[in-house]
Each structure stands twice: as structure tokens, then as C-alpha cells.
Amino acid sequence: MQEEERNLVRLQKFMASCGVASRRKAEQLMLERRVKVDGIIIDELGFKIDPKAVTVKVDDEVISLEREKCYIMLNKPMGYISSSSDQFDRPTVLDLIKGEIKERVFSVGRLDYETEGLLILTNDGDLAFHLTHPTQHVKKTYLVIIKGDMKPGAITQLRRGVKIDDYVTAPADVELVEKAKRGYTSIEITISEGKNRQVRRMLEVVGYEVHYLQRIAIGQVTLGNLPVGKFRHLTAHEINCLKFL
């Protein structure tokens, strides 16, 4: 019995390891009743399986661990969503790699519709879980162009943390890139949280409207000169940097 228990894993963890989606997305797929184990729909999040003893299907497609891991850096353009599908039929980031990447990948975290920049696409569910789990405090750096002149007091507020709704943000690293020029100021801001539209909302709290927002780094992995809308495979060094953040 103990040997059998050691072989059991949560279904959503197995799905993530197969590269279907992140664990959170895998749980969503289960709740949507799109997952079957030996022909039976499973929507219980605590359900465990022995991967060697059962057949798992997602949307009636058999999944398995025998998949080559794929790690992609994409420079997401504005006007694209980060999820794999959209109820409003807007273009998704997967449209940008369609026909060029044979592996089934998903985005790690999200960038909102109006934001450009660095997005990781992978089929490595364990890496996705590591990078998105709140306890990991993964640092993400953004280039922000705001309207007006950034006051020193506003920078101090951001560095201390600001209140958004019912929570106070963790202290951010903020650096002035270029003082007001033609009515706009450029700053770099690094945060270790991933709340919805967090950078935009933080700037709004201190009195500024974001004119342009681009993510330029996740940990030590930087966007560099990758053109907007283009992608490339991550190097082995970059993958290790992400895994050991």
C-alpha cells in the first residue's frame, strides 16, 4: 500500500508536468469537466492518479509525460491577449507562433492586452508553477512611460509600497530613466508580485497615467533587442536562471 501511495500524484500536477498548462490552468480545466481518467470525467481537485496505471485525456486527447520541453521568449505586442483563447475572438500570443512551434505551449503568467514585452511560453508546468507562485517573489522589471514629470515624492511612495484596494504593494525598485521630455517621463520599475494590472494601478495611485508599458526582464532574463511580435528559444543558461530564481 505504501509503495502504491508513493506512485500517486495529484491530477493537476501530472497535467502540468505533461505540458498541458500551468497547475492553476489545469485546475480550471478540471473544473470545466474537460479532463477524463480512464474515460471518467474528474472535477475533484484533490484527485490523485498513478500515471503508469491510467489513461488521462484533456478534451479527449491523451496526454503523457513523454514530451520534449520547450522554452520560448516572446516579445508580446499590444493588442494580443496572453491566454490560449478569448471569448471576444481577439488575437492571442499563440497566434504569433502558430505553424512554427510543434509543441503545445502556454504562457507563464500574463501581460494585459495593452502591454508589450517579455512573455515566457513553455510546456514545463513545474517551471510555470515556480515562476507564478506568490511565495517565490519572482522579480519582473518594466519600462514605463508616463505623462508628466515624475516627482521624487511619488518615487518614494512606490519604493515604500502603495495601497491598492485592500492590500499594500511590496516595496518596488524604481529608477528614473529619462526626465520629462516632450511631456513624458521614462522610469524602470521592478516588482515581485503579480496582481492584475499592478504597475498601471500603482502609478495611478501616485497620480500618473501610463502612456506605454513594456516588461523588459524576469529575474536575470532580459528581453534585449528581440523585435516586437517575434520569439526565440531560451538558452540553457536562461532556463537555469529561471529555474533557480
Architecture blueprint of SSEs:
Elements: H1 2-6, E1 9-10, H2 11-17, H3 23-31, E2 35-37, E3 40-41, E4 48-49, E5 56-58, E6 61-62, E7 71-76, E8 106-107, E9 116-122, H4 125-132, E10 140-147, H5 152-160, E11 163-164, E12 167-168, E13 173-181, E14 184-191, H6 198-205, E15 210-218, E16 221-222, E17 231-233, H7 236-243
Parallel strand pairs: 9-15
Antiparallel strand pairs: 1-4, 2-3, 2-5, 5-6, 7-9, 7-17, 8-9, 10-14, 10-15, 11-12, 13-14, 15-16
Describe this structure in words.
The protein is an alpha+beta fold and 245 residues long. It folds into three domains: 2-62, Roll (Structural Genomics Hypothetical 15.5 Kd Protein In mrcA-pckA Intergenic Region, Chain A), CATH 3.10.290.10; 71-134 and 221-243, Alpha-Beta Plaits (2-Layer Sandwich), CATH 3.30.70; 139-218, Alpha-L RNA-binding motif (Alpha-Beta Plaits), CATH 3.30.70.1560. The protein is 22% helix and 29% strand. It contains seven helices and 17 strands. The chain has helices at residues 2-6, 11-17, 23-31, 125-132, 152-160, 198-205, 236-243, and strands at residues 9-10, 35-37, 40-41, 48-49, 56-58, 61-62, 71-76, 106-107, 116-122, 140-147, 163-164, 167-168, 173-181, 184-191, 210-218, 221-222, 231-233. Strands 7, 8, 9, 10, 13, 14, 15, 16 and 17 form a nine-stranded mixed beta sheet that branches. It has a four-stranded antiparallel beta sheet with strand order 3-2-5-6, with no helix packed on it. A hairpin with a 2-residue loop joins strand 2 and strand 3 (40-41). Helix 2 crosses helix 3. The protein starts with a helix and ends with a helix. The mean pLDDT is 91.
